[in-house]
Automatic annotation (TrEMBL):
Belongs to the sigma-70 factor family. ECF subfamily. Pfam families: Sigma70_r2, Sigma70_r4_2. This is RNA polymerase sigma factor. It comes from Flavobacterium agricola. Coiled coil: none annotated. The lineage of its organism: Bacteria, Pseudomonadati, Bacteroidota, Flavobacteriia, Flavobacteriales. SUPFAM superfamilies: Sigma2 domain of RNA polymerase sigma factors (SSF88946), Sigma3 and sigma4 domains of RNA polymerase sigma factors (SSF88659).
Length: 184
């Protein structure tokens, strides 16, 4: 009963509903992803992305199924997407002189001057978008992505609960994505 009420609240944009869902299911989703990734930072990022997608698609949730099952399904898909984006390239092992001649086929991945200019321009555009956020959201984005603090470190820095930090970061990312989308 309490779950349905909070899902309904979240669908209406009520912060209490979002916080309840995040607080109730965070550990389950996080530990599920942590088992798969074996990396706390990646697991936190995937878990945040999972809740972001779930909250965006909350209207599509079918209450005939358990909410945590729906979240885990989203988490699996986010993890698969993460793996696809981060596939590593195969490297050629050089074990004798015969293989040295084949190394010339390896592409040089060093960024060119043009690549660096494009990265600087993209960073400037991103910073311009971040400046459009409210100061609280700017601060949490800056702490997480530029200072690379963990969620717990951010909570300590801001003297807030961990769940509040997670919700604020989720909202900041969502608002930033909307700003970026409008700029396109």
């Amino acid at each position: 009963m309490k779950l349905k009420l909070n899902i309904s609240k979240a669908m209406q944009g009520d912060q209490v509903g979002f916080t309840y869902l995040l607080h109730t299911y965070w550990n389950e989703v996080y530990h599920f992803i942590l088992k798969r990734t074996q990396n706390e930072t990646i697991a936190e990022d995937i878990t945040i992305e999972t809740f972001s997608k779930a909250f965006d698609k909350l209207a599509q949730y079918n209450d005939q199924f358990a909410f945590n099952t729906w979240l885990i399904a989203i988490a699996k898909n986010v993890h698969i997407d993460f793996l696809r984006k981060n596939r590593t390239q195969n490297f050629i092992e050089i074990d004798d002189e015969d293989n040295i001649s084949s190394t010339h086929a390896i592409a040089d991945t060093t960024p060119t001057i043009e690549d660096e200019i494009i990265q600087q321009q993209n960073l400037k555009k991103l910073l311009d978008c971040i400046k459009q956020l409210k100061p609280d959201y700017q601060e949490i984005i800056q702490l997480r992505y530029f200072q690379e603090l963990s969620y717990q470190e951010i909570a300590d820095e801001l003297n807030e609960s961990l769940s509040n930090v997670k919700v604020r970061l989720l909202r900041a990312r969502k608002l930033l994505a909307e700003i970026i989308e409008k700029k396109k």
